[in-house]
Amino acid sequence: MKTMCITRFITQRLLAVGIGGLLLYPSNLHQAACAQVFKYELVADETSPEDAQLEDESELRARHVRLNSPPPDASLPGARWTFSPFSNRTFDLLVSRLERVGPARIITCEVQGNPGSWFMISQVGDYITAQMHGPGEVGYFLRHTALGDYRIVEQSPHKAKFECAAQTPSAPRQPSFQRLRQIGKSGGGGSHIVKLMVYFSWNVTYYYGSDGAAASAIYLAVSQANSALANSAITPSGSYSFDLVQALRWSYNDSGNYFTDLENFVNQQAGLQGTLSYADSVGADLLQLWVKQPVTGGAAYVSTPGNLQRFSVITVGSAFAPRFGTAHELGHNCGLHHNYEDSPKWQTGANGFYSLDMSPNNPDFSDLMSGRSSGPILQLFSNPNVTYLGVPVGSTDPAKPANAAAALGASFPFMSAIR
Ligand SMILES: [Zn+2]
């Protein structure tokens, strides 16, 4: 198996070197003008000093990036592009959505001929993170490693299992929760916004090459979480979103264990002192810490109605599609557990915020809160009223209910009232 992986790596590397990389540019004449001002051109590099640090044998280094001034927002919706990660792979893209969140500009494209697939670019200043993803398909991740330098990652949809430590504390971890419980309000319609403060460690800055590149990645992940909320048809109906107040590098060195990082975060120690008070000062409800460690995964405390939890940790290797770890950990903060089989505690929390996803079935898939991943992970939270391939993505079975959408509808008014 190891030999196969190495062979595949070498084949891909030679292929990338041979054809000279990746191009992303508008594909029709109508957008020809944009091609002059909005062009990404990447050429794969043969070797690099960083190769010894590669953790994924399919990860390829790319360089020679040129990025000029982007076109006005108004010219983007409906624009067509092509994405060519390799000489034998070209995808036609149709720009479907443009978001501006703080300093970030997020462009989402439909991948033509691949229903349910998308291509996203998050731009913060000169820094861009991009990703193409489709359920059950190979995806591509493009990350900044330094100004003018990118790395492209070919992603298997069924990589190693996502490890996540979801904990339900027996007592409040922050005195401020006592105050918070008194200002919870009932849900129903309207706009429900949970404000989010994201910190990232020095290791994350090193991994992405700069604070700006890390921020562009973080905005991309939060945008993916918001798409998951929108896909979930949360009840009561309304607009549900995580509003990223700020992505800020904190002077913190990863502990090497994301659960230890979470403990340091919650207890405001080991270099994370001040993160809570700063988050409060900018009106954030939830706090998430990004770290870069040899393992993938994340950790979060799970809220209950009387004990709201604000802290989560995610590793960069798990934050995005196909794992949707950022959304996963925020889901824990909002009261969600893993699937029934992996969350026996659920049985004692039927009156709380607990929820769970559906277990693998036929067709085999799961929602993003699942602890299992034998099939595609859908970009949504479980809801028995939403279907995938004709099968409900949830359950109304009273013995094993899976309705995270309803649980989020119940918890969001509380979580959004923390600030
Ligand atoms: Zn989890």
Largest sheet: 10 strands, antiparallel, barrel
Instruction: State the shape.
Output: globular
How do the helices and strands follow one another from N- to C-terminus? Answer: HEHEEEEEEEEEEHEHHEHHEEEHEEH
Q: Please report the total strand number as a whole number.
A: 18
Q: What's the overall average pLDDT, rounded? A: 75
Percent range of helical residues: 10-25%
From the N-terminal CA to the C-terminal CA, the straight-line distance is: 51 Å
By DSSP (H or I, 4+ residues per run), the number of helices equals 9
Ligands and ions found: zinc ion
- Structural class determined from secondary elements: alpha+beta
Neighbour order of strands in the largest sheet = 1-2-3-10-9-8-7-6-5-4
Poorly predicted regions? 1-57, 63-69, 171-188, 346-351
Percent strand equals: 25-35%
Determine Rg (CA atoms, Å): 21 Å
Provide a descriptive summary of the structure in words:
With 419 residues, the protein is an alpha+beta fold. It has nine helices and 18 strands. The strands form three sheets. It has a ten-stranded antiparallel beta barrel. Strands 11-15-16-14-12-13 form a six-stranded mixed β-sheet, sandwiched between helices. The chain has a two-stranded antiparallel sheet with strand order 17-18. Strand 7 (118-124) and strand 8 form a beta hairpin. Helix 4 packs across helix 5. The chain is globular. The termini are far apart. Mean pLDDT is 75; it is low at 1-57, 63-69, 171-188 and 346-351. The structure holds zinc ion (ZN). The site of zinc ion has 5 residues, from strand 11 and helix 8. Residues 164, 166, 328, 332, 338 line the site of zinc ion.
